[in-house]
Specification:
single chain, Pantoate--beta-alanine Ligase, Chain: A,domain 2, alpha/beta, Ribonucleotide Reductase Protein R1, domain 1
């Protein structure tokens, strides 16, 4: 009887161990299948996103062939609603990045501080309820020298004391997120500023046809007469507003001469934002697109998940 009892206990233990092992194997198999399915879905989403990017390039080419000014009332500015694809959907939009302030314009092509650009950025910060001092600090981050500006400014001496330590860029940047490297510049500040700034080549002009009211006001005193975002949207449904002539009339010849070299009514830089959902997987592709004088568009920069 004792031997029979021991054998029974061993049998129960072996069955329990076999059950645990089977459960573990099944769990790992299910996890592997889910992981493989997710990776396959993301690979598929990437190809779909690249297709949407190519579609955006074609839309910009057709827009270029029609000529005229670039404004939010054109076909390129209409968002792509969710469209069904195999196993999911895709949606996207094109943004005019020249409707934003180019932070690289805080310096000149030679790497020196651009006072006109700093003044515009200070006005934009004012309009957004942010401190003007960030304009000088950002300019110091970008300029080629290693001498801190006075009274506001910061160079390697400040940044090397941060945790972790790092050095100033001392050159143009490729992402506006570098503003968060400025000492004390918070995520909350960046979120306020992000919709109004871009990181484009030095010297890229602001398209007044798509610039928001805060940026129009920052160009020079009097720019705010063009109204708020709602009135601008109404006025832009049928064409560019304000035109360069409108801007000249509002500012006067003397003030207009100060900003003339920084404004335009067409754009070469756009961003395609494509979101693809397949099953439980989601991918967002940000594509910075450059359109040349012939209307041909090439991707200059891509990022996934974050701008």
């Amino acid at each position: 009887m004792r031997q029979r009892g021991v054998a029974l206990i061993l049998a129960v233990v072996m069955v329990a161990l076999a059950t645990v092992m089977a459960t573990r194997i099944a769990s790992h198999t299910a996890l592997d299948v889910r992981r493989t399915t997710g990776l396959a879905a993301l690979d598929q989403a990437w190809e779909v996103a690249l297709g949407a990017e190519a579609w955006a390039a074609q839309i910009l080419l057709e827009d270029s062939q029609q000529g005229g000014k670039d404004h939010p009332g054109e076909a390129w500015a209409m968002p792509l609603p969710p469209l069904p694809i195999d196993g999911g959907e895709v949606e996207g939009r094109l943004e005019d990045m020249q409707g934003r302030f180019n932070i690289n314009n805080l310096v000149t092509a030679e790497g020196k501080v651009n006072e006109a650009g700093v003044a515009q950025f200070e006005s934009l910060l004012d309009a957004l309820g942010l401190e003007r001092r960030w304009a000088r600090i950002a300019a110091d981050w970008l300029d080629a020298d290693t001498i801190a500006g006075v009274p506001e400014g910061a160079e390697d001496g400040v940044y090397l004391s941060q945790q972790p330590p790092y050095r100033a860029a001392n050159g143009p940047v490729t992402s506006t997120s570098e503003l968060m490297a400025l000492p004390g510049f918070t995520l909350e500040n960046f979120r306020k500023l992000r919709p109004f700034v871009a990181a484009l080549p030095v010297g890229t002009r602001i398209n007044v046809c798509s610039a928001p009211p805060q940026l129009l006001a920052a160009l020079a005193e009097g720019g705010s007469v063009f109204g708020n975002a709602e009135s601008l949207e109404r006025n832009r449904r049928d064409g560019c507003f304000p035109t360069l002539d409108d801007l000249r009339a509002s500012l006067g010849d003397a003030e207009y001469q100060k900003v003339q070299a920084t404004v335009s009514d067409n754009s070469s830089w756009f961003r395609a934002v494509t979101t693809v959902r397949i099953g439980t997987s989601e991918l967002t592709l940000y594509s910075l697109l450059e359109r040349n004088s012939a209307g041909l568009t090439r991707p200059s920069q891509r990022s996934v998940g974050t701008e």
